[in-house]
Design goal:
The chain is α/β, with parallel strands linked by helices. 31% of the residues lie in helices and 27% in strands. It has a single domain, classed as Rossmann fold (3-Layer(aba) Sandwich), CATH 3.40.50. It is built from eight helices and ten strands. Helix 5 runs parallel beside helix 6.
């Protein structure tokens, strides 16, 4: 079943076209990796889905309902959660307080205990202020904060950015647990190897447009790299 549908979406930053004519379907239970160079429109697309950017044209449909004009906080209540690039935790609050501040917007399995169980590296850090957490711990906390809203759609922006390899491994182990549990995930990732290792589908953006949308198992790294740099367009 299609959970999210984007139809001919245009998003602008002033006179700059950041996303142009993007049409995309995300099925319930699917993991989709969105890749592309800096400035390709990946973050803007996620923010438009979350309601942080108002599109200039096109529609966003969630569970069959047009939510294009719905405010961001109401989209959270409907089951859309975004983990932003840079994590954006409240540095003066503890890890546990950062989880609790999200609140339980919907009924579901996620609470502080289940988040800590899913992300074992957080277990001993619950009372530690976010500013004193490592990068990997902060990323896990940011994902956990989104999970606290019990989302139907979890969007992750630049999961591995700035993290040590060991921390990336730990975060991705927990992500695989979420995926195996049937979560619907849209993942923006610079690391192509990581993205292709967990995603069922890969979408490559270039200059605001989708240039690849294909099953990950049918897409080679070389094809993605070519599209990534605009050397070859494959739809």
């Amino acid at each position: 079943m299609t959970l999210l549908r984007i139809e001919e979406l245009d998003v602008r930053h002033g006179f700059l076209s950041a996303v142009s004519g993007v049409t995309l379907d995300i099925a319930e239970g699917e993991t989709v990796a969105i890749v592309g160079a800096n400035g390709a429109g990946k973050t803007t697309l996620l923010r438009a889905i979350a309601g942080a950017h108002r599109p200039a044209a096109g529609r966003v449909l969630f569970d069959g309902k047009d939510i294009t004009a719905v405010a961001a906080h109401r989209r959270v209540g409907m089951g859309i959660a975004l983990v932003p690039e840079g994590r954006r935790l409240f540095g003066g609050l503890t890890l546990e307080e950062n989880l609790l501040v999200a609140g339980r917007r919907r009924d579901g399995p996620w609470d502080v205990e289940s988040v800590v169980e899913a992300f074992p590296l957080l277990g001993r850090r619950r009372k530690t202020r976010a500013v004193n957490l490592s990068g990997g711990e902060q990323q896990a906390a940011a994902i956990g904060r989104a999970l606290m809203t019990n989302p139907r759609l979890l969007m992750l922006d630049e999961v591995s950015l700035g993290l040590a390899p060991a921390m990336v491994d730990a975060v991705y182990r927990s992500l695989r647990t979420l995926i195996e549990g049937g979560a619907t995930i849209v993942l923006v990732e610079q690391d192509l190897t990581r993205a292709l290792s967990v995603a069922g589908r890969v979408v490559c953006m270039l200059e605001g447009e989708v240039v690849i949308d294909a099953p990950a198992e049918q897409t080679t790294r070389a094809q993605v790299v070519d599209a990534y740099f605009g050397l070859r367009r494959t739809a």
